[in-house]
Design goal:
four-stranded mixed β-sheet; 4 strands; single chain; alpha+beta; 98 residues
Length: 98
């Protein structure tokens, strides 16, 4: 699901007050982490993730890898924190603007 610019702006505003739910450690993106991330997305739809590490390119790869494996959209990335969105098809919780 491709998000429009207005939808991304709206989701960034909602994500501003959220605390990170998932913490990616030194082991990186593991199958267990992806499973927990998917469960968090199913429950909340909008999730903030904090990624450890000092290498900017490695963090960017982990952010993109996590989004790809979970089927989520990256809403925003600032430093060590990224926000993701994935619509819950059964029970949507966030009403997106058009």
């Amino acid at each position: 699901m491709a998000l429009t610019n207005s939808q991304i702006r709206y989701l960034r505003g909602l994500a501003h007050d959220l605390n990170p739910v998932i913490l990616v450690g030194n082991k990186g993106v593991t199958p267990a982490l992806v499973k927990e991330f998917g469960a968090a997305l199913d429950q909340h739809e909008l999730v903030k993730v904090k990624i450890a590490g000092d290498d900017r390119e490695a963090r960017k790869r982990q952010i993109d890898e996590l989004a790809g494996q979970a089927g989520a959209e990256v809403v925003q990335r600032i430093g060590h924190v990224a926000s993701y969105f994935r619509r819950n098809a059964d029970a949507p919780k966030i009403a997106l603007p058009r």
